[in-house]
Amino acid sequence: MALYCIGDLQGCDGAFERLLAHIGFSASRDTALLQGDLVNRGPDSLAVLRRCVAADGALLCLLGNHDLHLLAVAAGARAPGRRDTLDAVLNAPDRPLLLDWLRTQPLARLHPHGGETLLAVHAGVLPQWSAEYTVALAGEVQAALREPDYALFLRAMYGNTPARWSDALQGSERLRAIVNGLTRLRFCTPDGAMDFSSNESATEPPPGLLPWFELPGRRTAGQLVTFGHWSTLGKLDRPDLLGLDTGCVWGGCLSAVRFGKTLAQREWLQVACPQAQKPG
User: Fold this and answer.
1) 224-259 pLDDT, tens per residue?
2) 215 domain residue, yes or no
3) Of 11, 12, 99, 129, which sees the most CB atoms within 10 A?
4) Per-residue pLDDT reduced to its tens digit, 30-73
5) Domain of residue 268, CATH code
6) Would the pTM count as exceeding 0.85?
7) Structural domain count of the chain
8) At residue 210, what are phi and psi to the nearest 5 degrees?
């Protein structure tokens, strides 16, 4: 039984199918953690969702910002975007089944492997959060999405404030800060305030900002964290960090990491992807 982590799909089901064939993935034997942004911008979000549902737990998914956007559009909580490619999902006969499945997926997973654990998120982890606390906070959002009136949460989900985390946050502000940290984060100020004005590469951060994983005192330092979301960052392979968004939808690669007996034993596997959209 093999464990894989796979980067952002964004509706590129053809590339996903080729990657699964390339790595020899078997749903009866193997497990893959998908880093979120299953849908949108690519040509076949509907096929991606159907493939994930049919895998019956062999594909363990996270929610990214584009997945939450789909739920918000479907619930009438947000207008479609100009570059969205979600109509096939919204008009599908199995739309209710697919969307109900999607809103039960978590925003973070702590997954065991070989006596260790990896923390999987879509975007980032705020410096004040431990791995266990990150999963607990993600569970608060997951609970809100499972409520019958979950559209109320989705209407209040958008915005850049509060920029700083506090354990005292409550209600929609607390949930919004959790969502922003786990699905939108790239840069922070040195004292931990989230910034959403830039998506440059981490090698050239804007003045006064640091990549979230470079903040001093980060409580997940030393814990393997896998994430996607940051295509301009590209492949990142450090002992405690794996960045897996290698720009499939923009004409880059779709990436997977296969773990050996330990999390330190890693093999990168990639397939080239046709460009579905141009950046910008």
Assistant:
1) 999 999 999 999 999 999 999 999 999 999 999 999
2) yes
3) 11
4) 999 999 999 999 999 999 999 999 999 999 999 999 999 999 99
5) 3.60.21.10
6) yes
7) 1
8) -130, 150
